[in-house]
Amino acid sequence: MNSMEGLVTQIQGLSSTASDVLMLQNLLKQANDSLHAESTRLLPFLDQLDPSKHSLGYLYFLEACTAGPITKEQASSYVLIIARFLSSCVSEQIRLASHKFISVCKRFKDQLVLLGEPLRGVALMLTAIRKFQSSTEHLTALHPEFLLLCLLAKSYKTGHSVLEEDIFEVDQPKDLFLYCYYGGMICIGQKHFQKALELLHNVVTAPMFAVNAIAVEAYKKYILVSLILHGQFSTSLPKYSSSAAQRNLRSLCQLYFDMENSYSNGKIGDLETYVQSNKERFEHRLCIFYQDNNLGLVKQVVSSLYKQNIQRLTQTYLTLSLQDIANTVQLSSVREAEMHVLQMIQDVEIYATINQKDGMVRFLEDPEQYKTIEMIERIDSSIQRLMILSKKITLTDELMSCDPSYLSKGCRERQKFDFDDYDSVPQRFNV
Amino acid sequence: MDGEDDAPKSLMEEMYANGIEGVDDAPSSSTSTTIRKNRPIISGEQLDIEAYAALYSGRTKIMRLIFLADHCDNSGMQLEALRMAYDELKKGENTQLFREVVQKIDGRLGPNYSTDATWCAMVDRKADQRKDKLESELNAYRTNLIKESIRMGYNDFGDFYYAHGALGDAFKSYVRTRDYCTTSKHIIQMCLSAILVSIEMGQFAHVTSYVSKAEQTPEALDPPSIAKLRCAAGLAHLEAKKYKLAARKFLEVGPELGNSYSEVIAPQDVATYGGLCALASFDRTELKNKVIDNINFRNFLELVPEVRELINDFYSSHYASCLEYLGNLKSNLMLDIHIHDHVETLYDQIRSKALIQYTHPFVSVDMRMMADAFKTSVAGLEKELESLITDNQIQARIDSHNKILYARHADQRNATFQRVLQTGNEFDWDVRAMLLRANLLKHEYNLRASRKI
């Protein structure tokens, strides 16, 4: 007890300036084990500490408290404590003990899930992320937890706001995989299929030495989203994806590949029978946390086939009767055909007018003339953005070529490759 | 073109009608006037087997007759063909083929046309004797090392094997003469023999290589040989489905061919194959320059007036009569050994070209008139046009309500803008993904490096 008391006073004393905080950190590290030993009795000490001023100390204590198994009643009280802490902690101090912070947040999430109230944690996690990140381009371990909470709470918009930022720095590959996978699911929930495709593509083509389960699940969703968006799907992964992925992913997701085959035939009847016959297998592709299992996505794929077929018709016909559309696309009635076309016009997927008197649809050209000011602004902003990106690339390239590990490896490998490729690397390099 | 001299009104009518009246005119003009002089053999009427077989000689005659018998439905024609094959085989020494033909006849032609075992045995015995003789002669020549004699020896061997139907051995023997060829004439002779055997075997890759080999010694080539080589090359291209090249080769064949290559091909065939391939693969200018204005080829086309008529009809846009000629010719073309499996493809290509050429000069086309011109229904025409539009061979749109086809030209400016924006987006995405992956790799590498240390 005395050591705890002493520790508390030291925390209170040494939390004011940066150098003091560093000293405090060393002390706390040494005291870590004793803290863990006393974990059950630390709760009252927390009241003596103020989270906004003594964030580092509070963090250590909190982490030790929550280290053991927690019952449901305890969980609710802990949730309150952690919530207060997260909203008021100071970012410089918590960054010093990043592992502890991450584990506290993870436990926070677990407790919320246990209590079945994910919505409470959404905003708090967001603030936690903002405080923890060194820059908006940095992916932390907290991002996937946050997205998970958003998914469970179905607050897709908040999740989406985080996804808007570009990520360039990653601590742990696993974080990235989870982040992209959950992010993809959030985008699917909001029907932003293009962004979902990008995120899932990142998972599937990321460098990995062995195929992991996240990549497999992501690949399945990737196939489905690709079918919905583009109506087709390239069966080979791009060259830059890892060899492990290229070899193995296909065999693990055979069900979805076959679906793609029946999709490309364009016959809605075939596709529907395929889905029906494999229904349980689609349903089992269910991970315990998520509401949108793949069956929902699969149904969307089936309905998108109608859209693809109608799109194809716009290429060859100027006007077409609703009856003919219903026949070609294999819809059951004229009314259904009209509904589909109407829906597509409203979603701005095709440009057409329906003449109900004759039962005719007239397909129009895309009215965009590319002459407006908005269009010019859009092009201009695109150009600016791309120029910034290119600068970033050249910068990264320069940094890489000065990196000592690259240079040493390049030296060693030099004999194996072409002279020209390795011209920029010195003959000998000793670190 | 036909209507140029008439008054404008009848010119318009003729353009729209597109050869519907022409159908009545055509048979009278082509067949009745020229009919007695030079009866066309490959024509719309039923094939006259005797006349057909008279065009060829040697092994190809027999093969063609057998093919005819296998593929035609009319049993009368079948038996006629088999009978002629039997007679022809009796004059030769190929007992293997003889037995095959007898089996096919199956006793239907009476006792005169059954297995003549004595004849077979006699021929086989003679063959063995001759073979032994040739072998001993060849050995003698080989010990004497006289190049010319060795070459002649191998040549004789080749001829012997060919006559007996052992085509592989024949080919090998002919090829062996290569080492003993001294003058370019010898080389030409070897090449021609090799080409002949290869065509019979159906190995057209050899044909192409030997044709090019022969063409490399131009000084010894007399015009008939040049013509023969071009025919062979054309056949090789036809088999390889390269219709444009085949057409060009056939069109270059000069009139010196005459009947000199009857072991392989008849001038009527040159005209038919060349004409059809040209029609299926040439564009309008090439068709005019190389076929219609080609004086040499005109001589060949005279032998098959229906093909000549159909080419002219196509060029002058009388599609209905052109397609009708094609339909008539089809049954006879299916009985020809070289072109029978290409007929469908060529016909489809010609029909598509006709459709495309019809729509090309117009901004809008009434599909009902077009369907009349092509003798199909409007619905069928719509399906065909739809597939052509999807393949991007016609730039148009169908107004299904009024049944009109409207030409459509892509707006370059809009398309460019669209592509620009799309490329920008793709670049953006690719670069961001790439930076992310680079970061991951760097992290992996650092991790592994730190673990090693």
Description:
The complex is a heterodimer of chains A (431) and B (453). Chain A has 431 residues and is mostly helical. Chain A folds into three domains: 1-135, Alpha Horseshoe (Serine Threonine Protein Phosphatase 5, Tetratricopeptide repeat), CATH 1.25.40; 172-313, no CATH class; 317-363, Arc Repressor Mutant, subunit A. Helices cover 68% and strands 4% of the residues of chain A. The radius of gyration of chain A is 28 Å and the shape is globular. Chain A starts with a helix and ends in an 18-residue tail after the last helix. Chain B is mostly helical and 453 residues long. Chain B has a domain at 362-407: Orthogonal Bundle (Arc Repressor Mutant, subunit A), CATH 1.10.10. Chain B is built from 22 helices and three strands. Chain B has helices at residues 8-17, 22-34, 49-54, 59-71, 75-91, 95-105, 117-144, 147-163, 167-176, 184-201, 204-215, 223-239, 243-252, 267-281, 284-292, 295-303, 305-315, 319-333, 343-359, 367-373, 378-390, 412-452; strands at 364-366, 396-399, 404-407. In chain B, a hairpin with a 4-residue loop joins strand 2 (396-399) and strand 3. The longest helix of chain B is centred in the last third of the chain and has 41 residues, at 412-452. Chain B is extended. Chain A binds chain B through residues 166-173, 176, 198, 201-202, 205-207, 240, 312, 315-321, 324, 358, 360, 363, 365-366, 368-370, 375, 378-379, 382-383, 385-386, 389-390, 392-393, 396, 400, 405, and chain B through 386, 389-390, 397-402, 406, 411, 413-414, 417, 420-421, 424-425, 427-429, 431-446, 449. Chain B: Residues 242-412 form the PCI domain. Chain B: It is found in: Cytoplasm; Nucleus. Chain B: Keywords: Coiled coil, Cytoplasm, Nucleus, Signalosome. Chain B: Residues 124-151 form a coiled coil.
